[in-house]
Amino acid sequence: MGMSEPGSMQRGLKNRHIQMIALGGAIGTGLFYGSAETIKLAGPAITLSYVAGGVVIFLIMRMLGEMSVDEPVSGSFSYYAYKYWGEFPGFLSGWNYWFNYIIVSMAELTAVGIYVNYWFPAVPHWVSALVFLVLITMANLANVKMYGEFEFWFAIIKVAAILGMIVLGILLIFTGINGRATGFHNLWIHGGFFPNGTWGFFQSLVVVMFSFGGIELIGITAGEAENPQKTIPRAINQVMWRILIFYVGALSIMMIIYPWNKVGLDGSPFVQIFSKIGIPAAAAILNVVVLTAALSVYNSGIYSNGRMLYSLAVQGNAPRFIARLNRKGVPLIGILISSALTLVAVLLNYLIPGKVFMYLLSVAVIAAVINWASIIITNLKFRQAKGKEAEKLVFKTPGHPWTNYLALVFLVMIIALMFTIDSMKQAVYVLPFWILVLWLGFKAKKAAESKARAGSRAA
Questions:
Q1: Cβ contacts of residue 167 below 8 Å, gap of 6+?
Q2: 202, 417 in Cβ contact below 8 A?
Q3: C-alpha–C-alpha distance, residues 70 and 389, integer Å
Q4: What's the CA gap between 102 and 115, in Å, rounded?
Q5: Nearest to residue 147, comparing CAs of 296, 9, 342?
Q6: Half-sphere exposure in the Cβ direction for 271 (13 Å, CA)
């Protein structure tokens, strides 16, 4: 079972692609649509929720970055878990990451249907989802550079729009809406800064963590980055200030210009607010942006799922035929299988329109927590294996190993908090069954390997 990095993947991702992929992972439906749910739970204190979650995510990204810079391979933390922790952790983290991004992709496709309804209320969600699924899959099958270009422009649109919205929001705060200054009092006059107490604040952390799901994609790109030792540290170090500007900045301004308790769940809060304060053009432009954001994360989902399946096949943890690449170095079969599975989202939107997003979100949080926990523990094992050589690491995790333990405790708290949210409880019950399914899959794989070995000895 070869663990070596195959040479046929192409290093076609430039620095600008990696920077924007990092941004694309951090700005998606969690901010544009999921923020409505967090605002309902925490009120204006949501800004602190994003700071707390952002610090933990930054630490986890540094742990992944430490390993990715030392060994830049495709498949990322599944490869490291396999090498430094053991066969089953490698099997589990690879398949779980793939499953997680399938669920995230489904959530993004669901959000696409909601956003298209802003212009075309008569178009069913499942129709929009199907159209964009076909388009994005075709782009990913072209070559890695095409994916990088798509993501670059998707992210440029998102970043420009959020910065524009922040500037417009600041202007509205100080010049007023319809001649009336908004002031900062909206942050505390509707029940205080913590309207639902500290409990509401803690519960909001669960949805906040969904917003950051997929940010580990930076590590997956290491195998196709032109200069991973330079581009990956730069992308990871910028994660923290991006979270502060894009999440904390945008949401703070939004809640200053509009009462937090009037934000609904029938679309993006950003679009709703600008249309309600009488700026329909801003609302229409923003709807283009939130649609772009959802497509961007879906684009990244198809990309990373194809690579993770490819990596699993190379390890021997998935059928070997999935490891085939086309002439352009694209894992064709991995992409097609992943894309076909996200069709389930199209079916779910057809069967239960309107309820799909929160169900998918809860399962995605659980799968993301497993991913992050495996990165933290693998990083501890990686350091142990390095021994004194760890001193020579170029991109070290700050505060190791204490920051590893702190991040693990935070993730355990997230799972405990999910028990207290009705729409998320079921996902926690699914967790042990999902790990059992992976364990049985691993055992079946081992049994097939020993049978094949016995057969070759007999021959």
A1: none
A2: yes
A3: 11
A4: 20
A5: 296
A6: 22
Count of domains observed in the chain: 1
What is the domain-level CATH number for residue 317? 1.20.1740.10
* Helix H or strand E encompassing 25: helix 15-26
Domain annotation covers residue 9:
no
Burial category of 326 from C-beta neighbours within 10 Å (exposed 0-12, middle 13-18, buried 19 and up): middle
In this prediction the pTM is 0.81
Angle at 454 between CA 448 and CA 455, to 5 degrees: 85
Range of the structural domain that residue 165 is part of: 15-445
6 is a domain residue: no
Q: Output the tens digit of pLDDT for each of the chain's 459 residues.
A: 333 344 455 555 666 766 666 666 566 666 666 677 788 888 899 889 989 998 999 999 899 989 988 888 765 678 889 899 999 998 998 899 888 888 878 877 888 888 888 888 888 888 888 898 888 888 888 766 777 777 788 878 878 877 887 888 888 788 766 555 566 787 888 888 899 999 999 999 988 887 777 677 776 666 566 777 887 888 788 777 777 777 888 888 888 887 787 776 566 667 777 776 777 777 778 788 878 888 887 887 888 788 878 878 887 888 888 888 877 778 888 889 988 888 887 787 777 766 666 677 778 788 889 989 999 999 999 999 999 888 889 899 999 999 999 999 999 999 999 888 887 788 888 888 889 999 999 999 888 888 888 877 776
Residue 7 maps to a domain:
no
Q: What is the token pair recorded at 48?
A: 């602190």
Residue pair 395/66 in contact by the 8 Å Cβ criterion = yes
Q: Terminus-to-terminus CA distance in the chain, angstroms?
A: 20
Residue 283: inside a domain: yes
